Amino acid sequence: MMIRADRVTRRFGHFCAVNNVSFEVPAGEIFAFLGPNGAGKTTMIRMLTTLLAVTSGKLEVDGLDPMRQKNDVRRRFGIVFQDQSIDQDLTAAENMDLHGALYSLPRKLRRERTRTLLKTFGLWDRKDSTVDHFSGGMRRRLEIARALLHTPKILFLDEPTLGLDPQSRNQLWALVKNLNQNEGVTVFLTTHYMDEADRAASRMAIIDRGEIVAVGLSRDLKKRAGKETLEDAFLALTGSTPDDHPIASAEQIRTVA
What pairing do the DSSP bridges indicate for beta strands 30-34 and 186-190? Predict the structure, then answer.
């Protein structure tokens, strides 16, 4: 099993962001983690990617503990955060090279992987352009290419298409699905766009107020809710829309963290 969560809880003082959550993601799956704002999605990703410790329960990433075996876990995943994390003053190739150096990849391998990935993501002809001249879609493609440079087993995507136009969203998901199908990369994603989750994900979990309310195939969740669309099923199962107001503000969490 590539990801396993067993009764995981994460508290910030008296506020419970994730409450007794359990799910599994087998290798090679595209798994969507869905919920309204403040439901616990990003907290779960932060725990899986070694940035937060669990309060109780157990997490495994490729059989490893994200807190006790941080370095080994970090070598196994790539991540694209909600907010842009690439350096706008560097070129596409320089961003890739810096990432590879941080992972101690040999220079020759960094160059080979950079060439392969930038070609795959349609950015090779812009390799020497600084990122501040890139469109939003190009920046997102570069971030995913960079996340894959060290050949991870798992790709975490936290709201990867937020703010992108429909064409860029479709291009990005086509690339992600191709990576999953042809290279076997396991994908763990969060998104507010239910149509994206419905088309891209093999299975999905719906989390609301820190608790899992449903896990399964899209068609099974629709059937359980008695709805024809995933968005309507989401609303029926949670009583929320994907972009409802969070149950705790960022300021509250900072205060108790």
Answer: parallel
Question: How is residue 4 written in tokens?
Answer: 């396993």
Could you give the domains of the chain? 3-192+244-256 (3.40.50.300)
Residue 170: partners with Cβ closer than 8 Å, 6 or more residues away: none
**Cα distance between residue 76 and residue 147, in whole Å:** 11
Q: Tell the residue number behind the tokens 């396993």, with chain if given.
A: 4
61-119 residue pLDDT tens: 999 999 999 999 999 999 998 888 999 999 999 999 999 999 999 999 999 999 999 99
Residue pair 174/150 in contact (Cβ under 8 Å)? The answer is: no
pLDDT at 242: 62
Strand boundaries in the chain, DSSP class E: 3-12, 15-25, 30-34, 56-61, 77-80, 154-158, 186-190, 203-208, 211-216
Residue whose C-alpha is closest to residue 216's, from 23, 9, 1: 23
Looking at residue 165, its amino acid is D
Q: Give how far the C-alpha of residue 241 lies from the chain's centroid of Cα atoms, to the nearest Å.
A: 20
Report the 10 Å Cβ neighbour count for 195.
12
The upper half-sphere exposure of residue 232, i.e. CA atoms within 13 Å in the direction of its Cβ, equals: 9
pLDDT at 137: 92
Residues in the chain: 257
Which DSSP state fits 185?
-
Which residue, chain included where needed, has tokens 């929320």? Answer: 240
Q: Classify residue 30 by burial, with Cβ atoms within 10 Å: 0-12, 13-18, 19+.
A: buried
**3-state class (DSSP) for residue 85:** coil
Query: End-to-end alpha-carbon separation of the chain, Å?
Result: 31
